[in-house]
Amino acid sequence: MDAFYASVEVRDRPQLRGKPVLVGGSPRCRGVVAAASYEARQFGIHSAMPASRAKRLCPHAIFLKPRHDYYAETSGQIRDILDRYTPLVEPLALDEAFLDVTASRNLWGEGPDVGHAIKCEIREKLGLIASVGVAPNKFLAKLASDFDKPDGFVVIQPEHVQDFLDPLPISRLWGVGKSTDRVLTELGVATIAQLRELPKRTLERRLGEWGHIFWQLAHGIDNRPVVGDRDSKSISHETTFEQDINDIDILKSVLLELTEQVAHRLRRHQCRARSVEIKVRFADFTTITRSKRLTQSTDVTKYFWQTAEGLLVSALHDSVLAVRLLGIGVSTFDHDSDKQRELFTDVTEQKQCRLDSVTDQIQHRFGAGTIHRGWRSRE
Known about the structure:
The chain has helices spanning 4-12, 38-41, 51-57, 68-85, 105-108, 111-126, 138-147, 161-165, 178-186, 192-197, 200-207, 209-218, 248-268, 301-316, 346-366, and strands at residues 21-24, 33-36, 62-64, 89-93, 96-99, 132-134, 153-155, 234-245, 272-282, 287-298, 323-334. β1 and β2 form a beta hairpin. By secondary structure, the protein is of the alpha+beta class. The two termini are 38 Å apart. Among the domains are: 4-66, MutS, DNA mismatch repair protein, domain I (3-Layer(aba) Sandwich), CATH 3.40.1170; 161-218, 5' to 3' exonuclease, C-terminal subdomain (DNA polymerase, domain 1, Orthogonal Bundle), CATH 1.10.150; 234-366, Dna Ligase, domain 1, CATH 3.30.1490.100. Helix content is 43%, strand content 19%. α4 (68-85) runs antiparallel to α6, α11 (200-207) crosses α12 and α13 packs antiparallel against α14 (301-316). It is globular, with a radius of gyration of 22 Å. The chain has a 4-stranded antiparallel sheet, covered by helices on one side.
């Protein structure tokens, strides 16, 4: 989906069309941009940018509070459309998914036919624009979907994979960050064609396992299957930053917002969880996870946040790299209606449960993002 949160808001408020629209926190406090319309991006604004900086770059930008539940509802409507064409749908986030339509050709035609039908149905039924990439594998499809945004439709036929890849800069390869770019520049590599000409051993010697991965991607090889998510055993949210972030305060703000979303979804499904996990992907595409198992299952936002914040500090302790992706998930569900009792004192727990209940009611009535937690830097 193109600028998903912002596009949903513009669809619902036609008077905003053509204007720089930002969805996220307030520029008057420690807020960050969650989504920016393409008109706003022309001013250099991107997601995860401090809202105060976005305001300086574009003083006349229109800031809107996010409505995460509404976006999730709209995402579900998109998902209903996708499920009509194939059961093999692997979402990456609320606004992006892989589809394997190999087995659907007898019903819906070849890949480009399916992609065009989905794009048209989303526009006609939901009034939103999707960019579609059609290709023989996930890497190429993702690359194609990003190639001609907004409102893109790019098809990479199997016999033209190298024609498409070869002229592209190496930065278009999944996993190439600043450090990798420096190594490849030292090897005289600037394009995918030049990378493809290097012996695989040379790449593996300089870049280890990633050298083998880059060699495969440069040849258009990606054997990862599309994995459906209907039997999910966890609830999670993650976000990929358009520019890498090395400010711990911004990362904590984003993680807190993600934690609120996860906890709200958990309560909405009348579940509690016992395990908390965060996911951090750094600028060099190294990805780590940190998890902790709680002594009792819970659905209280504060307790997930306290755990997640500690895991984040631990994950960043020895790293000097900026962060590219940040996420949180909870698992090990408990559907029993009995309340958790042993994590904290009853009085503390009762206060936090009441706070979550009131917060949920406010968001249900006035929209997600109407009220949210703040946090204080430890500095």
